[in-house]
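Budget justification note: compute hours in this period were largely spent on complex prediction jobs such as the one shown. Inputs:
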Amino acid sequence: MLTTAPPGPAATRPTKPAVRSDSTLGLLAKIVLLGLVDAFAVYVLITLFLQEKWVILLVGAAVTVLINWIYLRRGGLPAKYLAPGIFFLVVFQVFVMIYSGYVAFTNYGDGHNSTKADAVNAIQLSAQQRVPDSPAYRVSVLEADGVFHLLATDPDGGVSVGTTGVPLEEADDAVTDGTGKGMELEGYRTLQFGEVLANQADILAITVPFSDDPEDGSLKTSDGSNAYVYRPALSYDETTSTFTDLETGTTYSDTGEGSFRSADGEQLSTGWKINVGFDNFVKAFTDPNIRGPLLQVVLWTFTFAIVSVLSTFALGLFLANAFNLPDLRGKRIYRILMILPYAFPAFLAGLVWSGLLNPEFGFVNNTFFGGADIPWLTDPLLAKISVLVVNLWLGFPYMFLVCTGALQSLPEEVTEAARMDGATAWRTFTAIKLPLLLVSVAPLLIASFAFNFNNFNVIYMLTDGGPRFSGTTANIGHTDILITMVYEIAFGTGVGRDYGLASALSIIIFLIVAVISALSFRQTKALEDIN
Amino acid sequence: MTTFTDPQAAAPAETRAGGSGRVPEQRRRTFGQWFRHKGWRHVVGVVTTLFAVFPLLYVLSAALNSNGTMAGSNVLFSRFDTGNFEALFSNPSRPFGRWFMNTMIIGVVTSAATVFLGALAAYAFSRMRFKGRRVSLLSLLILQMFPQLLAVVAIFLLLNAITDVVPWLGLGSQLGLIMVYLGGALGVNTYLMYGFFNTVPKSLDEAARIDGASHVQVFFTIILPLVTPILAVVGLLAFIGLSSEFVIASVVLTDPESQTLAVGLYSYVAQQRSENWGVFAAGAVLAAVPVMALFLFLQKYITTGLVSGSVKG
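Corresponding output:
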């Protein structure tokens, strides 16, 4: 948007002398920097070409051309200054949000990571079964560039080599021992028995396919000296897009939901990514496993954010008033000590307070409550109160600083006039100072609300969302706010990762924040009109 | 008055305090009058200070007490020794020294780049008039309402895809993490800087232009030296914010050697909070000290920055 804007008259006029006076140093710096960027771009583009990622390749090429155009043409000065910041902004803030929107409409997550072709391949490879009564292949384990290979001698005496992902290839020039078993091969190093033992896990994992078609089966060894033929237990039929279990005859067909399922509902664990429309949103509001917790979490997110803003602002304002006295002794000391919590890293604060509030060994229970066993972080209500108190501890110094600044910038005539009119201190405060103060602090209160709405650190470090809700398998609890719930669903250890559902919840947060900021910025304008 | 040196502030403060009990002669005040005027403020000050400081004293005391467990740390300053600090640096599976360096490097590089990118943008917005200027400023204001951590899932998937193309910029890479952080370099920073850049009179750069300085020279030699306070504020706020950033760092940095303090220290107590307590406290003290020192040292800039932000933002 910016980059294509033709330069206005104001922008072009000063450019002319600038071009003339550009020092050689500046020109050199420009050439070097642009050269580095282009070198990197070419490297990325070549990699993309080799990986045949055409869409990204096109976009990348377009961006590279655009960057060069911005910096090599004469006009368009603003774009030259804005481009670096905007590049990162577009990729890592705007694009990722749009991408969240896309992921929210897919079933992306554990078991649905990739394309259908990948899923078919993975199923064939994972469901391998030894072919009954198949002859043994005698093998030696070779190593080349840190990768283990199998040198297999088939029952007829032919020797071939291969490894996982690299089909067997004839190796006629292999050195064989007296019995005809292949032992060594040029370019490879044969592992000694001790080494085979030491790398047992890696060697057992080697699956050498006979050809590029997984249906042909593969060789696997269980001891490093004999290998057997394995075939997929499931056979894939491309025309009907179904898997058939070779033993039981069960058919698993593509249900259209990104996985293979049998008639009686049994599902193969590996699926693929498909678009699921609004399913994630529907799931969030109908799935009994999610719906109940989600509603509670939304409610608590609002409560947490609103109470946090109000409590920190109230305490900060009160303190600002109390210390807004020029000749108060020790004010400096109070001020420095009181803003310490704000300087203390927030994630550490959560962790430290979780120790302070530990019911068994914590300082609060043992020192302030004489060894009582108060479940500060494990009782649903107390946990919420604890979270709010800790957030008050973290947040009041900021409000104290802001309110002090705002109070001191109020014009003195106004309060003077109020006093002349006989207003009490309290009345001067509520009727004059507070409304004036709100005009300048309101945007900060909104920002504080938006911040607390997504205040991940305090919640995650202090309670980790706990205590857990009963009646749900997900690891979500009474103090979880939306953003910690998203994190839990996407990266948590409780149930499988579900990027689609997590993104859908992110989109919901996104919408809530958008609506609230829109509404409150209007409100702020109204406040400004008072002034 | 540590942070605000406005002498006029004294007057409204006086009116607030003296509203009800104005005392003409200070010497003849009784205790009751003193208390109503000033004493209660000291009570408030002491109580609040205790509330603010006791968790910090607690963690300092636990760090210096090599007894180690949480239960053993409840009597403040009952022991002084450095056992916890020694244990902290001698655990190869939890390389605290590396975490510390990682946090410093990521924090310094990112905040320096943030300041630079923000200043470039602020210069353009403040000194140039171009089509789409207002819209861009407004878009920045709107975009900064949506923190990056909302899109953490997409960031993870994007870096996962980058790993296939440029492995040293993908998952597990600190450079990749820095790049992600730079996505938030504009936004609120540009806004803060834009307001400050506007306070530098335009006649200064016009004079320099007439003398033959290029726009680049004006930017580096005229503007930047005059806006150093806001650069310090933005850089410092960015550094403080980054040193606490957990969500994205925890998703991107998987290898303990490359992790930051936030991710590493969390893992220290995630499983067994009470056993490792002393060592964790030692780590917390070391992690907090540089940030707090910076903060207090540049407190004046920060507070003025906050306030000017509040007035202009």
